[in-house]
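I am still getting used to backbone structure tokens and would like to learn alongside you. Label the sequence line and the structure token line clearly, so we can match residues to local backbone shapes. Go ahead whenever you are ready, and we will take it from there:
>
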Amino acid sequence: MAQIIDGKAISAQIKDELKEEVSGMRERGIELCLAVIQVGADPASSVYVRNKKKACEYIGIKSLSYELPEETTQEELLGIIRELNGRKDVNGILVQLPLPKGLNEEVILDAIDPLKDVDGFHPVNVGNLSIGRPGFVSCTPAGVIQLLKRSGIEIAGKECVVVGRSNIVGKPMSMLLLRENGTVTTAHSRTKNLQEVTKRADILVAAVGKPRMITADYVKEGAVVIDVGIHRNAENKLCGDVDFESVAPKCSAITPVPGGVGPMTIAMLMKNCVESYSLQNK
């Protein structure tokens, strides 16, 4: 039977470690602060923002909340970002995605000071990751690495296949696995003979964005399968990119949806917030 990798338990462990670290920083007079900007009232975004605030509160990080109307102009939003960039009492700036139509996501994210970009989306941080320099790393891929390490799964020397090449998950995921000395293949919608490629994987990361696309036919016996996807099926139940029921019996370890990768994203965001102080005060 496959080991079920428990993202809830591992994220709770990380948050407890961070809580202790933040408590020590406070004793030294260091106060951390995260600014969260949400434009519009997308229900899923509101849930994420609420969870981020709760995590800040638990760990001991102050959070500033900017809940802006959908009609907010790009210039108004850029003005808030510029102000937060200049504030010494703000360590991290997060703009909740997706943004309403009419706002240029690329321009907005590029306006955030790379030293405050706790989401790890700024080109400077992506560049730092690719050449092995310190910087913020995109939270979901960083969370996957922690899931593997804290579950005792060796990455070095393993054949790793990432299905997906998005800027937020697929590409940084491949770079992080490479940084951990995995042998990495990035597969995507144009990959020929995809099943043959994924069946080589000792570690298979599904970040393809299609519900239950990865079935048992895509998976090698004994592989570790990490499911980054999150969708609602016809019965309105959460499911991932992996068909859990057919794949789990073939795996040595697998993440469930929900309760796998999802909780790790916020835990790693908190980790980036804590690390922001040392990056900003080198």
